[in-house]
Known about the structure:
By secondary structure, the chain is of the alpha/beta class. 56% of the residues lie in helices and 8% in strands.
Amino acid sequence: MRNLRLLKRGLVKSLQDPFQEVEEKPPYLQRIMKKPEPEIRYAMFFTPRSGSSRLTDICDQSGVLSKPGEIFNWNFMPGIAAHYGARDMATYIDVIARDRNTNGVFGCQQTYMHILAGFRSAGKWRAAVKPTHYFWLYREDIVAQAVSISRMRQTRIGHANSVSQGQQETAEREFTYRQDSILGIIEFIQFMEAGSEAFFRRTSTRPMRLSYERVSELSADEVVAVLAGGLGIEPSGAAAITERHSKMTGSKASEFTARFRRENPRFMKKIDRARRTMIARLDDMPVS
Length: 288
């Protein structure tokens, strides 16, 4: 965990200002700023490979849950800022909230590391974004999550719907077991989880908790109903949704997950203990 703290320090010092090369677009920016501010602002915390892409796609299609993309992902911010001509963080947040306002609702997704990179602290992020509602999406099986990330890093494939069946089969053959990589990924995920949980405790925030495993069992319409319920709005006006996400084929992921747990019992005992309360709180998650 000490290495992760050093990573955090290095990250927030090394990133460049995403607005420094943005050119002004006064007419376009002013036109967007005439749109109304959203009444509801929700923030969905998540960790990688927890099903956030599927939720984003469902929200986008619904027409009632905004377009909760990763607007604070440092890789995407320069391009988004350039699109709007936003040259500082306050303008960036304001214009996106207005442009993605759907019937009074605005949403955004972020990991704990996105927040540290852009704002240095979750408190500063909260003051700038001013969320009214929170969701917290994570996986119950952190080893399977880490194995999924390891596979994505090795194969460069993130989603089954973006490649052919043949490409999936090739990726499955090339996917190898890398214990040290999986261990490091688990520590990184748990670091983000702990940071998110600490933020919720400090701010007395009770997010609606969602897990990859339980959300995967819900249909798209049920997901819309759950999220809309968490925001206190009616999902009746939602558009028809087409499911576009599916799981990668192959058995190696489950085999590697079981192998890692079998070969690292002491490490997993520590991790499972640290996550016990967080997992137990998922019992409050509505089922539809």
